[in-house]
Amino acid sequence: MILVSACLAGLDSKYNGKSNYNEYIERLVREGKAIMVCPEQMGGLPTPRDSCEIVCGVGGDVLEGKSKIIDSKGQNQTEKFLKGAEETLKVGRLYNIKKAILKSKSPSCGVGKIYDGTFSGKLTEGNGVTAELLVRNGFEVITEEEFSAK
Asked: What's the domain count of the chain?
């Protein structure tokens, strides 16, 4: 069993109310091999919502209280992202899952690279909050880009 970002399976859960549909991810869900999660929705954010980025740090910094996540209007959304990360971890533990395929570049789900907090489209090295929490708890976490390359 694998955790997957719901937007990759075709659920319209992305910040703009759309999805990042990936037919292979959707097939895993349909075949009962994957469970969909959307940390942003699980943390209480609406869909659609203003885009969010981690300011002055990466997911680990947010988990350690050294950085925050703001939306494009300047509102602090850190608590909702932290709650969503914790809820996602709970789902993984409930189903004894240790692998996840998450949406690249996201402040929640990004692995390896995320947007840099300037809302300019620039990337920085690091993980999103949920991805980092999962990694710290022993999960193997990859992006859909890495999954598609296999």
From this structure: 1
> Hey, what are 10's tokens?
């075709």
121, burial (CB in 10 Å: exposed 0-12, middle 13-18, buried 19+):
exposed
Q: Residue 11 is inside which H or E element, if any?
A: none
88 close to 134: Cβ distance less than 8 angstroms: yes
**Token pair belonging to 136:** 């710290």
The residue range of the domain holding 22 is 2-149
Task: Specify the pTM.
Answer: 0.95
- The yes-or-no verdict on residue 146 having pLDDT over 90 is no
Residue 124 and residue 137 in contact, taking contact as beta carbons nearer than 8 Å: no
pLDDT digits (tens, 9 = 90+) for 57-84: 999 999 999 999 999 999 999 999 999 9
Q: What sections of 97-149 are H helices per DSSP? A: 129-136, 144-149
Q: Phi and psi (nearest 5°) for 35?
A: -120, 130
- Name the E strands within 39-85: 52-55, 68-71
Q: How far apart are CA 33 and CA 130, in angstroms?
A: 20
- The answer to whether residues 131 and 102 touch, using CB atoms and an 8 Å cutoff, is yes
Tokens of 89: 């971890």
